[in-house]
């Protein structure tokens, strides 16, 4: 009976929930610089109107985290929902169909920066908390909301801060991070692990000279070119690490979204994007994405800089990558220095780690009764089983898992992952409403008295 009451409550208040999401999208929280406090105050107002315990933790220049709870009792089972308030910059606004912060509704979609990543998921988990409070259902546990800053730049000032400062005395049994996990046309995924992401700057230091006498100098751009041409050898110097899900298991998981394995294999053979995602989840990948060098057309450059993006499997470390890079560079005859500067006649390479986020994986997800039950609720609402999957990018789930706070953490939320950070980002309204249903029904089921 309570499930029907929840579903009826959601359907009867659709317009309120749509307006709340539109308001969050219209609230500026671009990171950098952040401005997440703008969103936190909107959420605080929405929840306090429903008489929900809510606290905002401001920091920096107009930044904040927010924590809200269904009640004051943490002695029973505790379920935590996480959503980030910051969004990436919109880029060139001229490329958008509609202004990126207008939250324009067209053809059953809401367009805007952050609609998918992840104000849709954030709004849905906030609303789930409000519904449970409004209906005053008989529950024995607590629902905790973490609305966080800084996810788009690592989560250290957001989720990590809350884990280390506000959750230390609260045991948590299950965590859902409401990131978009739609894999069109496959349906939804339940993400049980994410790759690490590190950025390493490579600096080649040569010797400048007049371009009329190029052999009097050492061209730093040529040095970088030589390194780039040998980057495919990195794998030879890395320890062999088994992926958390084998290629065959990933295919098996994805195939549940199709009527038969034969149909899946046919679709897979015709879909390069799907092939690439599955392949990326089974191996270490790297990409050199930024490069600059030279000061003038007639001067041999003595400096060239490049930044590489690495995505690591669980078990692979930053030190492993640095070690492999050093071996590749040393094999070319170049010295690697620990400092970025030297004498004018020095020829060397310098490496600097810019970002260092660790991989994260819930090893015991296959045995989890809670995850099976969650999947059954998703299937009931979305009419498709969610796919257990591994995320080729990073997310805040790592701060819950890697800290030892709660290993049983998943990503699940409304929106298509492919629209995140893209021009004309949007969310399907029906997907958003379904996510509210999933989050509310699961929280009720997880926390109700038995």
Please describe what this structure looks like:
- The chain is of the alpha/beta class and 450 residues long.
- The chain has two domains: 2-194 and 359-447, Aminopeptidase (3-Layer(aba) Sandwich), CATH 3.40.630; 207-241 and 284-357, Alpha-Beta Plaits (2-Layer Sandwich), CATH 3.30.70.
- The protein contains 13 helices and 19 strands.
- The strands form five sheets. The chain has a six-stranded mixed beta sheet with strand order 1-2-6-3-7-18. A five-stranded mixed beta sheet has the order 11-13-9-15-14.
- It is globular, with a radius of gyration of 24 Å.
- The two termini are 15 Å apart.
- The mean pLDDT is 95.
Explain briefly what this protein structure is:
The chain is α/β, with parallel strands linked by helices. It has helices at residues 2-12, 14-26, 36-48, 115-135, 159-165, 220-228, 247-255, 261-270, 272-280, 318-331, 369-382, 397-401, 429-447, and strands spanning 53-59, 63-69, 78-84, 104-106, 109-111, 142-148, 174-177, 189-194, 196-205, 209-210, 285-293, 299-300, 303-312, 336-337, 348-357, 360-361, 387-391, 409-411, 426-428. The strands form 5 sheets. A 6-stranded mixed beta sheet has the order 1-2-6-3-7-18. Strands 11-13-9-15-14 form a 5-stranded mixed beta sheet.
